[in-house]
Structure formats: structure tokens, C-alpha cells
């Protein structure tokens, strides 16, 4: 009886050990690849970096909508206020600890987008031609599309963080 108990105990111990090794291997593998299943380049970040980044992303979307709406209303003051916040100010506000994780292609598209908003703010503060602004917005949104098609963010498993 004791012998059978020991065998059952041993069997479950081995099962537990092998499944945790399998999990660890899976984590390790996924932490070392840099292409996702949808074929985008993965940028590994911490949970709080992801929260910060995606919060800015949602602000960009809200700003794009507000600029569209305000331009159609010929409300250039609102266009300027909204666009200015998304411009160089936001670009400079991104923490270095995060930007150093960005690949080269990503680094090109980010500033291009913010400078696009800055240019919209400048146009609204000067001539304020809404057709020009709508064209600028349509053009800068190509950078949103290009970046989303190429990159994604994953949260790095805690035990694998090296910095
Ligand atoms: C330099 C790259 C880059 C640019 C430029 C960019 N994004 Fe993003 N955006 C990302 C990445 C990466 C994600 C996360 C995608 C993922 O992990 O699946 C994201 C996610 C988002 C999300 C989802 C937010 C959430 O809460 O999940 C929104 C909305 C968004 N972006 C809007 C925009 C808009 C609007 C623009 C242009 C005005 C833009 N982005 C420009 C890289 C970019």
C-alpha cells in the first residue's frame, strides 16, 4: 500500500515538474522571438510602459477626430489647441527608458507623426486653411497606418527583464 502511494506521489511530482519546465521554455521562447503571429515586429516593454504608450495612442486618435470636427466647423483655435498638444511637446515627453527600446523604423514614424500635428497647429495659427489642414491630417494618418502594420507591443515577462 505504501509502495503504491509512493509511486502515485512520484508520478504526480514528475508530471508537475515537466509541465512547469514546458511553461518556462514557452516563456523563454516567446521572450526571445521578435516577430508576432501576425508577422509584426514585437517591441518588448513593461506593463506600465505599455499603459503610458497606449494612453498616448488614444489621445492621438481623439486629437485626429477633434481636428477633423473643428476644421469642418472652421474653429481654428480648437484645431491649434488640440494639435499643439500632440506635437513636439508630446514627442519630447516620451521617457528615454521607453524610446531606447524602439527600433529604427519605429523611431522614424513616431516623430514624423508628432511633427505632422505641429504643422497642423502652425497652419491653424497662421492662414488657417481647412483644406490644407485636412490634407495634412490625411497625410499624417499614413504614418499611423504604417506603424500599426509593422509593430506591436508585448509585455515582457518579469523574470526576463534585463535592464
Ligand atoms: C511609431 C509607431 C506608431 C505610430 C506613428 C502610431 N501608432 Fe498607434 N500604436 C502603435 C503600437 C505599436 C500600438 C499597439 C499595437 C499592438 O500592440 O497591437 C498602437 C496602438 C494604437 C491604438 C490602440 C490603443 C489601445 O488602447 O489599445 C490606437 C487608438 C492608436 N494606436 C492610434 C494611433 C493614431 C490615431 C496614430 C496616428 C495619429 C497612431 N496611433 C500612430 C504604434 C504607433
CATH superfamily of the largest domain: Cytochrome c/b562
Straight-line N-to-C gap? 53 Å
Overall geometric form: elongated
CATH arch. level architecture of the largest domain: Up-down Bundle
CATH topology of the largest domain: Four Helix Bundle (Hemerythrin (Met), subunit A)
CATH class of the largest domain: Mainly Alpha
> What is the count of β-strands?
2
Class from helix and strand fractions? mainly alpha
Task: Kindly provide the radius of gyration, computed on alpha-carbon positions and rounded to a whole number of angstroms.
Answer: 24 Å
In terms of DSSP E residues, the strand content is 5-15%
Helix content: over 70%
Number of helices: 7
Could you give a short account of the major beta sheet? 2 strands, parallel
Uncertain segments of ≥5 residues (pLDDT<50)? Answer: 16-33
- SSE string, helix = H, strand = E? HEHHHHHHE
Bound molecules: heme C
List keywords for this structure.
two-stranded parallel ribbon; binds heme C; Four Helix Bundle (Hemerythrin (Met), subunit A); 2 strands; elongated; 163 residues; mainly alpha
Summarize the structure.
By secondary structure, this protein is mostly helical.
Amino acid at each position: 500500500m505504501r509502495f503504491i502511494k509512493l509511486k502515485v506521489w512520484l508520478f504526480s511530482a514528475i508530471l508537475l515538474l515537466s509541465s512547469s519546465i514546458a511553461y518556462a521554455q514557452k516563456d523563454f521562447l516567446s521572450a526571445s522571438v521578435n516577430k508576432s503571429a501576425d508577422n509584426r515586429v514585437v517591441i518588448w516593454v513593461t506593463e506600465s510602459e505599455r499603459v503610458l504608450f497606449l494612453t498616448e495612442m488614444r489621445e492621438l486618435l481623439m486629437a485626429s477626430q477633434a481636428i477633423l470636427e473643428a476644421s469642418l466647423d472652421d474653429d481654428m483655435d480648437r484645431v491649434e489647441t488640440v494639435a499643439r498638444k500632440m506635437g513636439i511637446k508630446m514627442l519630447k515627453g516620451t521617457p528615454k527608458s521607453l524610446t531606447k527600446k524602439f527600433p529604427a523604423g519605429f523611431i522614424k514614424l513616431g516623430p514624423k507623426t508628432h511633427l505632422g500635428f505641429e504643422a497642423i497647429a502652425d497652419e491653424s495659427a497662421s492662414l488657417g486653411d481647412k483644406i490644407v489642414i485636412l490634407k495634412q491630417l490625411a497625410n499624417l494618418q499614413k504614418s499611423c497606418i504604417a506603424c500599426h502594420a509593422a509593430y506591436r507591443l508585448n509585455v515582457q515577462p518579469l523574470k526576463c527583464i534585463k535592464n
